[in-house]
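Example A, followed by Example B.
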Amino acid sequence: MKILITGGLGYIGSFLLDYLSDFEITVVDNIMFSQNYEKIIRNRFKFENVDVNDLEKMKKHYTSNDIIIPLAAIVGAPLCDKMPEVALNTNQKSIQAMSKILSKEQIVIMPVSNSGYGIGEKDSFCTEESPLNPISIYGKTKVNAEKYIMDRDNSVSLRLATVFGVNKKRMRNDLMVNNFTYTAFTKKKIDLFEPNFRRNFIHLSDVCEAFLYVIKNWINMKNEIYNLGLDEANITKKELCEILKFKIKGFEYNIIKNQKDPDQRDYFVSNDKIKNKGFKTKMSLDAGIDELINYYKSNSS
């Protein structure tokens, strides 16, 4: 079975490759972040330096693979705000174009973001049936991309919680758990805006396990949307800081009052649907934070 991974040199993609090594993999990436593709590919996978917005070059890849995992994206609200046109083209329009090219028999497994929920109700969890209310360019483009793939047969959408964890091939320190842990470890202080805003989190390894699980259980999983997060990691930003305070000596956080966080997302998420399909997460928030602390210790000098 042939699998195409776009954005395969990114934070998730480069980690996912090891989970799918039994398949024939083609990786497409525009090396936007100057990744060392030779170190990641290691002659184990086919690789081509192509931007997904170059539809003429992408057609051959879309038509010659059985499974498409479109990871190529401008990820996160801050980066999308800096380059809105590129975000619109990459996150949304390229997916629309891809959907028109693919045959009904081809499989698409696409990660989107649970940021599409925007601001959830205070006393309830967002499910896959909850109304979507994206409040950022990132969220809006991902919501629209999801519509394109779910309008076709043989698609699954994974609405990812905010991902955390160590990826030595392509580390990201801007994701909330990673960023808070890095800042707590290196600066011993965080200024916290709107501390009671809620989030859900998921470890990088569990994201990759979920992709593999969907592939192996396709008949039972197809044509559905699934939230993917850790139930235990439905927590507020203040609660995350309290965990870090326990783990990192000397760390303190300072709550800033009467100022808004630029990121206004606020929701808890139910992950029951994918659990009821048999998928179980393995990496806890606690263990993931320990992993991050050890990583930052080993890389501090």
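Example B, a separate protein, is given below in the same form.
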Amino acid sequence: MESSSGKSRSTNPAFKECLKKGKIKPFPRAKNLATKELAAAEDDLSEAQDRFRNGRFKYATINAYYAIFHAARALLYSKGYRERSHFCLSVALESLFVESGLLGKRITSMLRNNMILREEADYGGSFSRENAQVGIANAWEFLEEAKELLNQPRT
């Protein structure tokens, strides 16, 4: 839910906590940066696909997550906010897009699932061809949804 100023009037307690802790902040220049973030998402997705083709499943998984991260950030920017926490980014998407019906809950689940896959690959050394493939499929779908919401050309 948004006020006439475009700022959220969400009643989501997790979102309010992220705002209170400064993990989500109003960012007046954000709306001008959404397109740049979508381009970064496309670059990361392309890199993930390239690394997958070359058998670099750890880095394919990591890049797939960052494709979603940048697409999610573009969505958040479109609402005039900036994140200071990967977790709070997912909370903000839930509050600003899912609760308002703009996105399905499945989309924020993709962000969280790819975050877990990235952390396991990056910090735990646990990655696989299958996880990289799932991560890339999630990233592609997430990016397409973000483009549609932001009225950008779909791939």
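On Example B: Confidence is low (pLDDT under 50) at residues 1-8.
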